[in-house]
Amino acid sequence: MYKIAKATFRNRGSSVASLFCYLQTRSISRQSKVVKTKTMVEKEDMNVTRVLFCGPHFPNSNNFTREYLQPYPFIQVDVVPIPEVPEVINKYHICVVKTMRLDSNVISLARKMKLIMQYGVGLEGVDIDAATKYGIKVARIPSEGTGNAASCSEMAIYLMLGLLKKQNEMQISVRSRLLGVPAGDTLFGKTVFILGYGNIGRELAKRLKPFESRVIATKRSWTASINDSDSSLVDEKGSHEDIYTFAGKADIVVVCLTLNKETADVVNNKFICSMKKGALLINISRGGLINYESTYENLESGHLGGLGIDVAWSEPFDPNDPILKFKNVIITPHVAGVTEYSYMSMAKIVGDVALQLHEGLPLTGIEFVN
Known about the structure:
single chain, Rossmann fold, oxidoreductase, D-isomer_2_OHA_DH_cat_dom, NAD(P)-bd_dom_sf, alpha/beta, D-3-phosphoglycerate dehydrogenase 1, 13 strands, six-stranded mixed sheet
């Protein structure tokens, strides 16, 4: 059965471009269809491999995956409200966590589960030790090659330009019928510190070069991690121990780290105070990397010149949060990686993994962490 499916993939093209064209020719519902628990429990076909998407957020992840798998009725894709996941998780073979936190208690209920994965790279919400204990593999989709890194790096550019050009103040001028104000700034000649030079950091460095920005970056280990062409994108390299020194050299700091126990709150008061007065802070990774209180206080004092974030300390972000009172704050709703290019690419990976699991074949295209 999988061989037939594989042949079909080959015929319609396995490249991202082919996938893009394929999905654009079909009618895709933009609304997430949340399946009722009763419907899922009643369907007990032993020949069906079930894929569980947790919660209603990021609806295109399940919409695109369902569309990609539409020709294969032996794969079932369901979206379940987060509070109901513990009630039905025992029916599923693959779980795509999205924003849900899967702790040991929930994972212990997943008796048929073979794989827990993220529609992207972040796995901080998954108790990996518990999954390992119960014999469940945990994996992420690498950002390289899926369009995710490219999409996130473009969002970083957007946030930088939005702050430099004073996006919020420009809207005030439009409403006030004013011309020629505010006076903005340029990326030209700016020193940009990429905190965490991984896949997203490399894509960002590529996009900063045409602006003639100076790029400095830190990474825990540079050994054999990047090729010569990528290495030339960085004007100065440092290790994690150099982050405070590099913060003091930068006009803009872009946080591109993975969130874990070691990196949580890494951008704290010490770090922000190490930055130049008036420097900008951008975060396109995870909200937990930046300390909220320190950020707020340094915006209020004027030490921090601006904040641009696509991820927040709690999500969805509170529209009444007092940090939004500052004109030099831009917040977007966790959409840096949410582009048709990246989401169609990741839908193909999730779909292929489901088909491989159904046929008992090795799972490819994903990065295991246990």
